[in-house]
Fold each of these.
Amino acid sequence: MLRSRIIPCLLVQNKGLVKTVNFKNPKYVGDPINAVKIFNEKEVDELIVLDIDATREKREPDMQMIKNLADECRMPFCYGGGIKNVEQARQIICLGAEKVALSSSALDNLELCKEIGSIIGNQSVVVVIDVKKKKLFGGYDIYSHNGKKKSSWKLVDLVEKLENIGVGEIVINSIDNDGAMGGYDINLVEKIRKICSMPITVLGGAGSLNDIQNLISKFKVIGVAAGSLFVFKGKYRAVLINYPNRQERKSLY
């Protein structure tokens, strides 16, 4: 039976684990491998790892880091950051990742999603869509390059195109809510769900297990991702890798 997935999202910068607020001021929070070891023990559903500077710095994916992470992971693992061609995606899957995540390269060339899907399988192709609320007239703008470059794509048009192409999943990430821990943008999720039926993972804003439960209750089978919630604890944001135990997860689904 299908159920929602609760997914820690780890941001990597200079091989270290960081956390941002509104895509700014990255704070070092530890070593990614140590975090993965703890998440193994906690039996997480799935893991997303994003190298947040690879595309902006025009770097290729760090294959050695990906191999180290994949060797350690005992859960499905999705990697994103710097992927620009089919061969890089194929190599990442061969190293042990289950999925590859595209962002700017997908926005620039949707055909790349199809090409990669034809080699590694559409189910393994994820497109991350980073969005920010428009200041006037409502709606959302799409950004890439770690929130630095505004895209000309309209959100509805992009999502419909990705569904037609047959990508395996989209991750919809709220820049406004990133690291704020004030809850998910429910209106954004409703907007996406109305126009597509492909798997969706929501990222940006989780501050408590109640936020996760509210999202699952409203949208049923959905990917629920979080960063700060699973690396910080308490009002002073002490660094502590955490994840709901089995009993807690049962109450959330």
Amino acid sequence: MDEKTINEIKEKIIIEIEKTENSIIEYKEITKPIAPENAIGRISRMDAINNKSVAEAALRKAEEKLSKLKYMLKQVGEDDFGICAKCKKQIPIGRILLMPQSRYCVNCAS
């Protein structure tokens, strides 16, 4: 990979890290415990609990994505960067820019 491409990938990863960190902050706010003394009604409370569990799952995924993005940022420029971890073929630059946290090509990711 040339220097321009490497810089473009680094920039994309940094932007994704910032977005993901902001999402994590939002999800943490949403997943705060629901106090039982809040008079919101039984159905509304059940809905709030359901929404909280969905937000908790999203939070876990965002934290996992952040971890992968930080790892990939460290790997940019290494000899094996952009090589599929499974089949060892070059990952297309379009996929790297679309999903910079992925270590796999499209065929191996599915």
Amino acid sequence: MTAKTYDIIIIGAGIVGLATAYKLLEKNKGLSIAVLDKENRVGRHQTGNNSGVIHSGIYYKPEGMRAKNNREGYQMLIDFCQKENISYDICGKIIVATEKHQLPTLDVILDRGKQNGLENLKMLEIDELKAIEPHVGGLKGIWVPQAGIVDFPAVNNTYAKRIQEWGADIFLNEKVIKIENNGSVCQIITENKTYSSKLMVNCAGLYSDKIAEFTHPKKLGMKILPFRGEYYKLRPEKEYLVKNLIYPAPDPSFPWLGVHFTRMIHGGIEAGPNAVLAFRREGYKKMDINIPELFETITYPGFRKMATKFWRQGMDEYRRSFFKSAFTKALQTLLPELQEDDLITGGAGVRALACGEDGSLLDDYIFMDDKNVVNVCNAPSPAATSSLSIGNYIAEVVLAKMK
């Protein structure tokens, strides 16, 4: 008996992979689609370990794909949650400058938000900040009414449920170890069996570059570097200190937003994250180490160049990782009343940071498009918020290849 050849196989059952399958089947229910994932459940990594923020799109360059997809995907996500009765809350957030040198950054962010179509943004003086978040410290801030919170694992699980109802297959515990592509059929070889498809989409997240190397005929010119973000939580009796979302004015030269406070959709307040190099691609704990992966990271020329540029910030991040007092001090710039004993250890996530060979940080979406393969090599935040828009874009590319 000849094994089934699917129209499309998607590698990765995170929120981008499943949103892509959802959009493909929404456009054409007759497609035969399979989604492969090496884990025993969908959304195991970046999708299942993020802070659950619905991003407004205020930070992103208006001409970039992140901004475009956030604009489109934001409303698509809200509509989906309403349709599927998934809990969400458009609670708004404040972005706070705590030092004078950050004030020009607020002006840039406010202007960028307006360029991205956000309405009712407002620059706030300290008394206005405290009217929203009574315990916050700072000089000035921005009110962003579009920001919210949601249960992204629930969104992802619902994508999975719907595509299976529409006839898609999801195969778990299927780690891809090799791909053979003759230009018309892809043979996707896992540790257990071989799958065949006419087209393949790589949405492998932290391993997107490794999967891309199987099919992309040329050098990628980038590598995924894993950075762990560690969180604390406020003790329940201290949750009154934070009403919704409190963010710092970001350092424009640094790729992370800085430690912040986030109310979670099912209760509780997260504080963090920091950002430290993980010693394996899925290293959620300080001592999670994969020697070959770590060696590959530290010998990559792009990492060494990036580390040379950001080593001071990197040392500060590690200090916050190993010393709770340092983490607390960083949080106190936003919440002066906070004490070290108010924090309890929370969870951690690992971000896939795309780095060029020249040490540049690639902060926009990267798609590498071959004849019958689409590699999603970089889908940074706000990919979860934008998942349906990204999925729609990929679906259109894939369907065009099928004509």
Amino acid sequence: MLRPRVIPCLLVHDKGLVKTVQFKDPKYVGDPINAVRIFNEKECDELMVMDIDATRERREPDYKMIENLAAECRMPLCYGGGVKTVEQAHRIFSLGVEKIAISSAAIQSPELVTAMAERVGSQSVVVVLDVKKKMLGGHEIYTHNGKKGTGKNPVEMAVKMQELGAGEIVINSIDQDGMMKGYDLAIVEKIRKAISLPLTVLGGAGSLQDIGKLIKQYNIIGAAAGSLFVFKGIYKAVLINYPNWEEKDRLINENR
């Protein structure tokens, strides 16, 4: 069985590191390269970096930024933002990135998932589903930073992405993003039952206990968080943090 991973997620906006609340109002919290250096020192399991401008601005990924991040990063790096073609994905891999996350492109052109998996290997293809609760119950997938509803069911889409060759699914809750009140466990449970792929959950973690609960209840492979690892204390002072090996081992072992 794969060991659960605890994953900081960094959002890049206007070349700076930001944190959002429900995908809105990005707050500047520092320099991405400095954050990577600190996470290196803290020996985190994996790092996820998302450029939240690229798809919205309809531009290519910032290859120079990706190259700089990959050169600095001493842990597995997953990059997402603006990837629409196999050629773009291959170029990003050549810069030293281990995984590529696609979201809008996977929804709009599902065949891209298969093409990328055939070119670089399914283990390196991550599909991110940004989900939001519907007023009358259930969830819907949104794209373009939560601006565009798709009408698509996340459970059905997760199953489809698995069939197309994705190697990992990330469930990102728009409702819980930045709220630090816990993960959306309702959608996690449904998708965990529907697929056998490694599943990473993002959006809502406010404490290590939230991560422990996720691992214990759903045998989650990846527990990701943004605010938890860039803010500290009730006043949310900006401070990059991450559990040490002893804390993480206790967190994982106590909840298996």
